């Protein structure tokens, strides 16, 4: 006989399904940015906001699981330094161009997405492996110890690095877009390419 699924387990399964769909979407956008896609300011800002919110939420959750609160200070410093570095680095890695129908395309800065994904997936894997469905039972939060705690701390640092890099990249992309709109930056016109639409 199968045992009944508890409400916590049901919530966990729903969350995992939604999260899997989100990861597929992040992967697709990473691929689209590698190939080149039509630029949308609204979409760029919206997706960056979602990625940053997810990163902050998972990092904050780890403090309830035993990661020392003092780690928040280096995490904030990592985000700030990574954002500044990424802002400078992304300028030479991101390219814009216009197609023959006038649509603005862009690509580049893929390493930022890969670092973010690595941190996010590692952080998620730790929660799934060591906590499981109990990660949604906020009445009795599981305290990580030993190797799990060290792994959680390391993944948090990697995730906050990814968040900072993502912030810097998207600020640079937005600034470049604004410069193009004001005609302060010229872009090449190239024939229509077969693009991957990152919707």
Quaternary structure annotation: single chain
Q: Tell me, briefly, the overall form.
A: elongated
Mean pLDDT across residues: 80
Strand order across the biggest sheet? Answer: 1-3-2-4
Cα-based radius of gyration, to the nearest Å: 20 Å
Number of strands: 4
The fraction of residues in strands falls at 5-15%
General description of the model:
Helices cover 65% and strands 6% of the residues. The protein has helices at 7-35, 41-64, 72-91, 110-130, 146-181, and strands at residues 37-38, 95-98, 104-107, 188-189. A hairpin with a 5-residue loop joins strand 2 and strand 3 (104-107). The model is unreliable at 192-199 (pLDDT under 50).
Key words describing this protein structure:
single chain, 199 residues, alpha+beta, 5 helices, 4 strands, 65% helix, 6% strand, elongated
How do the helices and strands line up, and which of them pair or pack?
Elements lengths: L6 H29 L1 E2 L2 H24 L7 H20 L3 E4 L5 E4 L2 H21 L15 H36 L6 E2 L10
Parallel strand pairs: 2-4
Antiparallel strand pairs: 1-3, 2-3
Helix pairs in contact: 1-4, 2-4, 2-5, 3-5, 4-5
């Amino acid at each position: 006989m199968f045992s009944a699924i508890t409400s916590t387990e049901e919530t966990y399964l729903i969350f995992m399904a939604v999260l899997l769909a989100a990861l597929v979407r992040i992967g697709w956008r990473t691929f689209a940015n590698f190939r080149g896609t039509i630029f949308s300011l609204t979409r760029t800002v919206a997706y960056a906001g979602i990625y940053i919110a997810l990163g902050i939420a998972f990092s904050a959750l780890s403090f309830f699981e035993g990661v020392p609160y003092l780690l928040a200070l280096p995490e904030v410093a990592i985000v700030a330094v990574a954002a500044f570095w990424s802002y400078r680095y992304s300028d030479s890695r991101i390219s814009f161009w216009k197609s023959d129908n006038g649509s603005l395309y862009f690509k580049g800065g893929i390493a930022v997405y890969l670092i973010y994904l690595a941190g996010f997936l590692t952080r998620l894997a730790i929660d799934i492996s060591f906590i499981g469905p109990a990660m949604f039972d906020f009445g009795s939060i599981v305290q990580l110890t030993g190797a799990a705690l060290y792994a959680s701390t390391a993944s948090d640092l990697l995730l906050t690095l990814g968040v900072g890099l993502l912030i810097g990249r998207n600020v640079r992309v937005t600034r470049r877009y604004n410069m193009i709109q004001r005609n302060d930056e010229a872009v090449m016109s190239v024939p229509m390419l077969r693009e991957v639409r990152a919707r």
